[in-house]
Amino acid sequence: MQINRRDFNYGLALSLGSLPLLRFPFQQQQFRINSERIMAHIRGLAEFGTNPQGGVSRVAYSDADKQGREYVLGLMKDARLDVTIDAAGNLIGRRPGSVSKLPPLLIGSHIDTVPEGGNYDGVVGSMGAIEVAQTLAEKNVALRHPFEVVIFQNEEGGLIGSRAMNGELTEKELDLVSRSGKTIREGIKFIGGDPSKLSEVKRTQIGTYIELHIEQGGTLDSEKINIGVVEGIVGINWWDVTIEGFANHAGTTAMNNRQDALLAAARFIQAVNQIVTSVPGRQVGTVGRINALPGAPNVIPDFAQAEVFVRLIDHGEAARALMTEAAGDLAELKEVIWVPAVHMKKLDGFETCVVAYTTDIPAFEGAWGEPLLLGPGSINVAHTDEERILKHEIIDAIEIYKQLARKLLQT
Ligand SMILES: [Zn+2]
User: Fold this and answer.
1) How many Å lie between the centroid of ligand 1 and the Cα of residue 156?
2) What is the tens place of the pLDDT at every residue in 111-125?
3) How far apart (Å, rounded) are the C-alpha atoms in residues 185 and 183?
4) In this structure, which residues have their CB less than 5 angstroms from ion ligand 1?
5) Which tens digit of pLDDT belongs to each residue from 340-361?
6) Which CATH code of 3.20.20.100, 3.40.190.10, 3.40.630.10, 1.10.357.140 fits the domain covering 16-231+349-410?
């Protein structure tokens, strides 16, 4: 089983797994964000790519995406940001800090959607980041750190903008065709970037990146928590499993004289489920594919192959130990993909609470791996036109976003 990096990152974008969350203390401040303005901006952006049944289709590099970006660029200027489009096509709004050599704080999200997507995925974080910038500017809040609002391009089609900023976007990927029908290279030109200068986009001097994103699961809602802070991103462990048996006549070989590879595979599948659920935590394990040879009803299978997919916040060694236990001496495991979990920076003073949810976030790693802030969707869906979120949830989440950004900018 081969998987290229783009498919892999695309998979990440759709299904980052269970994440521990922390409870966030809400503080009263002398000034607040402008809730009416935020809601007007969210409604304004929803005009670009509106579907008759509700929701939006604003896939990257479409006309709706381009028009939506122009609208957002105007909002960034209104927020007194100095706006540029980087060579990858990301929109970047800057405000200097009083100590220019300090690393900048980045906040932002994306405004492109999947086809028939919702009005909030990416949008709440993008409009929230602009509102934070506008409120801080209007209140003349002095900043020590440089401050940047970033609207990443094409996050739903493979985290293209953020991976470019992380120096990961390859020349080969530029020729892949995006959902708009344009290649990534054509798309970047279409939105004002310059694919021949991608190497200039890579950033190394980033202090902290914080993203506000709706929850893509139902945990916050079911636990009656308004907002959570992501503590980490689950790793991915994917194995090819092979089991060898001995082929023989299915009609004449006695039951106690068989080496049935498919029966062993069935026991392995059962063991994966039992072992993954037998230890505390939010890890998940799935056998999603199986194949047996020779594949005839009257022959005992002598060969079975399965693929196992495990995601957990702990180190890969923990997953490996679980699968090795499941395999016992039945099966041979071969690792296909191992992506380590990312542990985000902890925020002081936050109470640990529930776990589990999914999101798509930029592909930052290492020094980029900093807290993400979440506002919940009030029902358990995302990436569809059924996305819903309550106004007070949006406003509270952005208010906390502002408080956190202000604290980091002034530290
Ligand atoms: Zn998103």
Assistant:
1) 7
2) 999 888 888 889 999
3) 5
4) 121-122, 360
5) 776 666 555 444 433 333 344 4
6) 3.40.630.10
